[in-house]
Design brief:
Order of helices and strands: HHHH
Structural class: mainly alpha
Strand content: under 5%
Helix content: 40-55%
Length: about 100
């Protein structure tokens, strides 16, 4: 009998689409550096909004929400509450879906 026939078959992997993934804990960000000085206020607002949207998109992907159509505003706001973030605005929710569309 060949040696390959004696090897046990690997167990099949489980899909997260069928089993929800639980959050271990909110991730710890790296050491924060100050933002560059002298930019217009609108730059800082949009920069922080992009960071928040990116964090939320990653958390949604980790929880099994892979399509932008699945990420309704209430789903995004619920995820924000789960990871300890203030509820995002409608604009930030749209940005989260745009990030998810871009990463497909």
């Amino acid at each position: 009998m060949p040696a390959a026939a004696l090897k046990p078959k690997p167990s099949p992997t489980q899909s997260t689409a069928q089993h929800p993934v639980l959050f271990d804990s909110p991730y710890e960000p790296t050491t924060k550096r100050p933002l560059p000085a002298g930019r217009p206020r609108e730059w800082y607002v949009s920069h922080n909004r992009r960071l928040k949207a990116m964090r939320l998109a990653i958390a949604l992907l980790d929880s099994g929400v892979y399509l932008p159509d699945q990420a309704r505003d209430d789903t995004i706001r619920g995820t924000a509450e789960t990871i300890g973030m203030r509820p995002p605005s409608d604009t930030t929710c749209r940005m989260v879906r745009a990030f998810m569309r871009y990463n497909r």
